[in-house]
Q: What sequence folds into this?
C-alpha cells in the first residue's frame, strides 16, 4: 500500500502516529502540505512520511487515499483533483455520505467511509468502516480494531456513540467534584475514580455474554447503594434524556 492523505490535520496526524508506532512498519505515506506545521512534524519524525507539493501530487504518488479535510471545504478541494480508476478512496469526512463522496472522486472505483477517532494515535478505539473492505479492515484492525458495517444506516447509528464522550467526562467530573467537596485530596479522588472506571470498562470483555443491562443489574444489588442511585436517576428521567439527545444527534448527522 502507498498511503496518501488529503488534509494533514489532527486526524491524519493521529492515524500516521498510530501506524508508525507499529513494530517494523514501513508503509510509505505521502501527506498534503496543509497544515504546514503538522506535515513538517510528521515528516521529521518518520522517514517513510513525505510531504507532497500539493493535493494532486498526493494522489499521483499513492494508491490508497484518505480524505481528511473539513466538510465545509471538501467539495471545493475534491472538485479540483483528478482521481484514477485504481485509487482506493477512504473518506474520513464525518458528515458527507459515501454516495456524495463517490460523485466527487469520479473514476475512482473503490470508495468507502471510515470513522477513526483521535485515540487511534495510541492504537485505541475501533474504527467503523462502510462498506466492508478487507484492505481497509486490515489497516484499521492493526490500529485499535475495526467494526465493518454494510450500510449507511448502521454507520450513522454507530457514529452517534462518538457524541457521548464529553458527557461521559462530565459525569466523572460530577463525581470527582462531589468527592473533593468532602475534603478528599484532588489526586486521591482522581486516582480512585480513574482506577475504578478503568476496571468497569473491562467488564464487557470479562463477561462477553452479558449485555449492558445485565451488567447494570449485576451491580445493582437489591437494597444496595448502586440500586439506590440507579433508581433515583431513572425516576428523574436521566436515561430518557440521554436517549432523546442521541435521537437529536442522529437527526443532525443524517440531515433529517
Ligand atoms: N478530529 C476527529 O476526532 C475526527 C473524527 C472523525 C472524523 N473526523 C473528520 O476528519 C476530517 C479532518 O478532521 P480533523 O480533526 O483532522 O480537522 P483539522 O485538524 O482541521 O484538519 C484538516 C486539515 O485540512 C487542512 N486543509 C485546509 N485546506 C486544505 C486544502 N485546500 N487542501 C488540503 N488540506 C487542507 C487544514 O490545514 P490548515 O490548518 O492549514 O487550514 C487542516 O490541517 C473532518 O472532515 C472531520 O469530519 C475528525
A:
Amino acid at each position: 500500500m502507498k498511503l496518501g492523505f488529503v488534509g494533514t490535520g489532527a486526524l491524519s496526524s493521529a492515524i500516521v502516529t498510530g501506524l508508525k508506532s507499529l513494530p517494523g512498519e514501513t508503509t510509505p505515506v505521502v501527506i498534503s502540505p496543509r497544515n504546514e506545521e503538522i506535515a513538517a512534524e510528521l515528516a521529521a519524525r518518520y522517514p517513510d512520511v513525505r510531504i507532497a507539493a500539493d493535493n494532486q501530487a498526493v494522489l499521483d504518488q499513492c494508491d490508497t487515499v484518505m480524505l481528511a479535510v473539513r466538510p465545509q471545504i471538501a467539495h471545493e478541494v475534491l472538485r479540483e483533483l483528478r482521481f484514477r480508476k485504481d485509487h482506493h478512496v477512504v473518506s474520513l469526512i464525518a458528515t458527507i455520505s459515501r454516495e456524495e463522496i463517490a460523485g466527487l472522486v469520479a473514476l475512482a472505483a473503490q470508495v468507502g467511509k471510515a470513522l477513526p477517532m483521535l485515540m487511534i494515535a495510541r492504537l485505541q478505539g475501533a474504527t467503523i468502516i462502510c462498506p466492508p473492505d478487507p484492505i481497509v479492515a486490515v489497516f484499521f484492525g492493526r490500529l485499535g480494531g475495526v467494526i465493518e458495517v454494510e450500510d449507511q444506516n448502521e454507520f450513522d447509528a454507530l457514529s452517534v456513540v462518538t457524541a457521548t464522550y464529553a458527557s461521559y467526562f462530565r459525569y466523572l467530573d460530577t463525581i470527582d467534584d462531589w468527592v473533593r467537596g468532602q475534603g478528599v485530596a484532588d489526586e486521591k479522588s482522581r486516582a480512585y475514580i480513574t482506577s475504578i472506571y478503568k476496571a468497569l470498562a473491562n467488564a464487557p470483555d470479562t463477561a462477553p455474554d452479558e449485555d449492558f443491562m445485565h451488567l447494570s443489574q449485576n451491580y445493582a444489588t437489591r437494597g444496595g447503594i448502586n440500586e439506590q442511585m440507579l433508581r433515583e436517576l431513572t425516576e428523574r428521567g436521566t436515561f430518557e434524556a440521554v436517549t432523546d439527545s442521541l435521537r437529536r444527534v442522529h437527526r443532525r448527522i443524517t440531515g433529517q
Summary: The radius of gyration is 22 Å. The pocket of NAP is lined by residues 6-12, 32, 34-35, 55, 68-71, 73, 77, 92-94, 115, 117-118 (CB under 6 Å). The first strand starts at residue 3 and ends at 6.
